[in-house]
Amino acid sequence: KQEVTQIPAALSVPEGENLVLNCSFTDSAIYNLQWFRQDPGKGLTSLLLIQSSQREQTSGRLNASLDKSSGRSTLYIAASQPGDSATYLCAVRPWSGNTGKLIFGQGTTLQVKP
Amino acid sequence: EPEVTQTPSHQVTQMGQEVILRCVPISNHLYFYWYRQILGQKVEFLVSFYNNEISEKSEIFDDQFSVERPDGSNFTLKIRSTKLEDSAMYFCASRVQTGNTEAFFGQGTRLTVV
After folding, report:
1. pLDDT classification of A99: cutoffs 50, 70, 90
2. Among the partner residues B6, B43, B98, nearest to A100 by beta-carbon distance
3. For A67-75, what is the mean pLDDT?
């Protein structure tokens, strides 16, 4: 059974720092991996989708990497800003089945201090 | 920009009552989902829906739950007899196909069962 884990659970950094959020999954048979942002009490905003055949995907100050064989993904945030404060979730789409369901990690709550 | 819309944003109901959560997926999307997030826990998959039928459901999605696409735009989740443990944020999501496409989530409905 696929399990997704995110470390650390919480992170506090000063503004301007570069940071890395980690996501690991137990079954390497994935179709893709998606990173989301969740603001308190709000919905999920898609940040990046990285296909199983890709190693990296970039959007602005965000860069996601994927090492499928080792079951790991990282989300790199460059030059962090207070507006980046949120919970970041990773989710994998299992290879098996064709429904497109996602399995989520528990998230990393990021606080960027001015 | 197209978005998934959920109503209501917050619903309070008494234990044993029926509730219907409503979603309007993005118009050209074909695959629809419900997820839930109990406070402080992971986002969990409930059900996927395609071509007017359930394509996959989790063990959480028991006989108390049902989904329907009553017309060309709405997608609903019904809970027949709510329990205290049904209190959670419920998210609707959609994707255009099950290939390497992003899942887009709504803002969620916070269900409180008292």
Report:
1. confident
2. B98
3. 96
